[in-house]
Amino acid sequence: MIAVIDYDAGNIKSVEHALEALGTEVCITRNPEQILNADGVILPGVGAFGDAMGKLENYGLVPVIKDVVSKGIPFLGICLGLQLLFDKSEETPGVEGLGILKGEIVRIPDEPGLKIPHIGWNDLSFPMGKKDTLFENLNDNPYVYFVHSYYLKAEEDIVVATTTYGSTLIHAAVQKDNVFACQFHPEKSSDVGMSILRSFISRVLDR
After folding, report:
1. In the chain, N or C: fewer CB atoms in 10 Å?
2. What is the pLDDT of residue 63?
3. Residues designated catalytic
C-alpha cells in the first residue's frame, strides 16, 4: 500500500487516480501509524511553501516524514512536495523546510517574454544518466508537465534531471537513497509520468 500524505494539498486526487490506474492500493491519510506502516509514501503538493509547512506542523507530520525517510521507506515528493524537503524558500523567508535534502528554493528570474508561473511541458535532461533512477525506462529528453514559480537549486550530487526555462537551469528531479522528488507533475505527464510512477511502485514492491 502507498500512503499519499493528506495535508490539504491541491493535487492529491490526481495522484490517487494515477496510482489507482496502475493497479496500486492507495491510502490518502495523515495518520502517523498508517504512513509509517505503508510500503511507500508520496508527499504531493500545490500551493505556498510557508502555508504548507504550517499545515505539516499543525498535523504533526514533520517528525513522521523524517521517520519515513530514516526507516528507508521509498518516498516520492511531487512539486511543492519536492520543495518542502529542502531547507528554505524565497517564497516565505524565515520559514524552515524539512531539511531532509540540501538546497534552496528560489524564484524563477524575470526575463522579457517569459511567463511566470512556468506552466507547461518541458523536456528533461539527465546529467548522471538514467540508470538506477525512476527514469530508467524512458527515452532521452522526455517531456513532462510543470506548474511553478519557484525552483530548486540543489547540491549537484543529488540532481538526476534538469530542464531549462528561459535562461534558467532548473533542477527538475533529485534522488538520494530512498528519497526521490520531482518539480514536475508525473500524474499529469501522460505516458512519461505513468512510467515514472510505475518505476516508483516497482521500487516499493521490491523493498
Report:
1. C
2. 98
3. 79, 185, 187
